[in-house]
Structures are given as C-alpha cells and as structure tokens.
C-alpha cells in the first residue's frame, strides 16, 4: 500500500510542477519508493551478469525504469546509465548471435535443398513443355495464321530488299576499289611501256651511232692507207734511200697514232658520265704536299688535291690526275653494271707535254682484281706493267678463265717510275661484256 501511494503521489507532483531536467526527480517520489524501487534494479543486474542474457530477463518494465530514474543523487543516475549499457550490450549480443545462427541455417538449407531442386526441375520440365505446346496449339488459329502470313508478306520483301541493297553496295565499293587499282596498274604499265620505248630508242640510237662510228673509222683507216701509199709513191718517185724511207714511214705512223690514239675500239664502263663511281672506303687517301698539310688555312686559300673520281673523266691535261702517297696504293671502281671484264686501259701524259720533262710519277707495276659484291672475295685478273716508253694509252687484256661477272674492279699499284713522294693516275678504263641476261634482253628489244 505504501508503495502504491508513493507512486500516485509522484505522478501527481509531476503533473502539478513541470520538470526542466528529465533525469532529476522529486525527493518525495524517491523517498517513497523505498526498498521496492531498488529491487527491480538489483534483479536486472543479477540477470545481466551473464554473457548473453535472454530476452525475457533483459527487459525492464516502464515502472521499473521510472523508479530507477527517480532515485536521488548522482550515484543513482550513474547506476541507471550503467544498467542501460548492460541492456544494450546484451541486446546486441543476442541479435548478432541470432543473425549468425540464422545465416548458417539458411546456407545449410540451401545446400540440402539443391539436389531436390534439380530433381524437381527435371520432373517439371516435361510438364512445362506440354503446357507450352498446348498454349501454342490454342494460339494457332485461322486469325493468327492470317496475321502471321500478312507479316511475312510484308517482312520478307523488305528483308530481301535490304540484303540486296547491302550486297549491291558492297559490290559497288569493290568495283570502285578495283577500278582505282586497275587505273593505277594502267598508269604504271603505261609508264613502264614508255620507259621501255625510251630504252629501245636509246639502244637503236646507240647501235646507229656505233655503226656510224665503225663507218667513220673504216673511212679513216682507208684514208690512212691511202696517205701511206701516196707517201710511198712520192718517196719512190724521188728515189729516197731505203733507210730514210723507213724512218719517214715510221714517223708518219707515229703521228697518225698520236692523232687517233684516244679512240680505243672498246666500250668503257669506267666513265663517270654513265654512272661509274669510286668506292672511297677501299681507295687510298689522296696525296697532299707537306707544306699544304701543315698549313691551317689551306681550305680557304689553297687548292686541294684532285679526288679519285678524276680517273673516270676523259680530261687528261697535265696536272688533272689523282695522286696518292708513295709508290704503292689502290683504287676501287664501282661499275654502273655487272659485267664480264675483258681488258683495262691505262693512260698517262707523255714526256713531251710534261711540265717536269719526265713521267716518274706514272704507275709501273700494277694488279687488277675483280671483287664479288656479296662476299668481298677478290679474284686476280692479271699482273701488268705500264711502259712509259710506249704509247700513252696502253690496253691490257685480262685473264678471266671462268668468265665471272663483277661490279667492282680494283687497281692495286705496286710501284712507279721513280717518284718516292707520290704516284699519279690520269685515266683508267674498264672494258668488258654485259651479263648474258642483259645481253639477251637488249638483243630482243633491238
């Protein structure tokens, strides 16, 4: 009875005097609770000492909470806060354990029910198929057939037209690309045909020039013979002695040779004008005098030595030659075409026109090699000597027993005619035949 009266009195006091702090209670209400107000609190603390209290023992009634909140002093409020923390902790622990247990049970149920689901699906599949067939049969009516036929009548021509248009477009694009290719091929063929015609015309011109040259040479030789015969007749008529007659004829022959000595009747493949070049990597260094080498301003005020390509030019005036250091050296000529070399020609100035009245710088002993462009293998084609007492233009026939074809010809000089400082070469010529493949093609074009 005392407890009920105290509770009623506390409710009446709350209604009459509004509380500003909900955590602060009246003295009368806290005093009237007595031992009964503390009993639920201690009872809950005893039940919540375990790890995970049950839901029945972890809940408090509204009256118990109000009694706990209305106790006097800060100690009672701390105990209320502690009690609520214990309640929340127990609730969270129970909910987490319950959720983990529920998840494990759901996984086990799923694993156990999988074979059953498979078996049920196998049994239900025929039933579903039968139902689908029945549904299709129900939908297969005359009206539906008419609708489907109308749709097909419209859709099939449209689809066919789309396919036809696509194929036609692809064909047109291919035709355009093929036309472009054909036009390109036609232009290339036309250019090749024009170049072939130009080559044929050039070959015809060369052949006609060759015939004209042969005719002129024949006329010149006939004129020479006529001159020699007329000279003999004049000498015979004047009763010139035999020794003097022979000397005069020899002098006339030498004069004619000097006039026509440059006309070597063989094609020259070592001409700069037709594409012959010098392989500088395998050619000796050009000679420069010591006073020029030691002069720092030589490139500005002095003329440097002639390059090795000078030997490929027909100009053989005194001083227009290529010189290298000492009596030994070499020069490698790259021909415009791969040929079978048959002879070489070496030219030097005569003593009569030499400014020093001598030709000691002329080459003497030299070797000729053919170099393979793929393996760099050298084949000796001959060992020769240039004689300064003979004609200024001297031709040497090569020994090419295997009839090999070369693109590079090497002249290796071993000595000169007494000059220790340098050796001069005025002009070199290489004679030979073109490869059989080029010969046959040129003959066919001619």
Automatic annotation (TrEMBL):
Biased composition (Acidic residues): 63-72
SUPFAM superfamilies: Galactose-binding domain-like
Chain ranges passing through the membrane: 107-129
Residues of the signal peptide: none
PROSITE patterns in the cross-refs: SUN
Membrane topology: Single-pass type II membrane protein
InterPro entries: Galactose-bd-like_sf, SUN1-5, SUN_dom
GO cellular component, one term: nuclear inner membrane
Alphabetized UniProt keyword annotations: Coiled coil, Membrane, Transmembrane, Transmembrane helix
A molecular-function term among this protein's GO annotations: protein-membrane adaptor activity
Segments for region (Disordered): 1-72
Compositional bias (Low complexity): 28-37
Ranges where the SUN domain occurs: 275-435
Record's compositionally biased regions (Polar residues): 16-27, 45-62
Location of this chain's protein in the cell: Nucleus inner membrane
Pfam families: Sad1_UNC
Coiled coil stretches, renumbered: 192-219
Protein name (database record): SUN domain-containing protein
């Amino acid at each position: 009875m005392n407890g009920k009266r105290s509770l009623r009195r506390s409710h009446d006091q709350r209604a009459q005097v509004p509380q500003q702090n909900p955590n602060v209670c009246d003295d009368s209400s806290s005093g009237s609770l007595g031992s009964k107000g503390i009993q639920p609190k201690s009872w809950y603390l005893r039940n919540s000492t375990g790890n995970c209290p049950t839901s029945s023992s972890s809940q408090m009634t509204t009256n118990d909470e109000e009694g706990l909140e209305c106790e006097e002093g800060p100690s009672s409020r701390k105990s209320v806060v502690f009690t609520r923390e214990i309640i929340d902790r127990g609730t969270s622990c129970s909910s987490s354990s319950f959720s983990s247990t529920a998840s494990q049970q759901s996984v086990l149920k799923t694993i156990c029910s999988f074979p059953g689901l498979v078996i049920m699906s196998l049994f239900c599949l025929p039933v579903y198929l039968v139902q689908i067939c029945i549904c299709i049969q129900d939908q297969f009516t005359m009206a539906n057939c008419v609708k489907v036929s109308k749709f097909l009548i419209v859709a099939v021509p449209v689809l066919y037209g789309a396919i036809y248009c696509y194929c036609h477009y692809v064909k047109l694009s291919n035709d355009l690309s093929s036309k472009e290719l054909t036009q390109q091929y036609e232009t290339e063929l036309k250019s090749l045909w024009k170049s072939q015609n130009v080559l044929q015309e050039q070959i015809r011109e060369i052949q006609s020039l060759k015939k004209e040259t042969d005719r002129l040479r024949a006329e010149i030789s006939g004129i020479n013979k006529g001159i020699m015969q007329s000279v003999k007749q004049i000498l015979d008529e004047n009763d010139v002695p035999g020794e003097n007659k022979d000397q005069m004829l020899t002098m006339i022959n030498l004069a004619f040779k000097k006039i026509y000595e440059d006309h070597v009747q063989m094609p020259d493949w070592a001409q700069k004008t037709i594409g012959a070049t010098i392989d500088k990597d395998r050619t000796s260094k050009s000679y420069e005098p010591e006073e020029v080498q030691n002069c720092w301003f030589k490139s500005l005020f002095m003329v440097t030595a002639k390059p090795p390509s000078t030997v490929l030019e027909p100009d053989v005036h005194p001083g227009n030659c290529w010189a290298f250091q000492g009596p030994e050296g070499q020069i490698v000529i790259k021909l415009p075409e791969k040929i079978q070399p048959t002879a070489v020609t070496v030219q030097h100035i005569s003593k009569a026109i030499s400014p020093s009245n001598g030709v000691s710088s002329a080459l003497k002993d030299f070797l000729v090699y053919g170099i393979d462009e793929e393996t760099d293998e050298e084949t000796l084609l001959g060992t020769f000597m240039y004689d300064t007492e003979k004609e200024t233009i001297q031709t040497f026939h090569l020994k090419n027993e295997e009839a090999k074809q070369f693109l590079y010809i090497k002249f290796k000089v071993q000595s000169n005619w007494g000059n220790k400082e340098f050796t001069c070469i005025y002009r070199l010529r290489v004679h030979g035949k073109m490869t059989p493949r080029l010969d046959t093609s040129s003959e066919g074009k001619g």
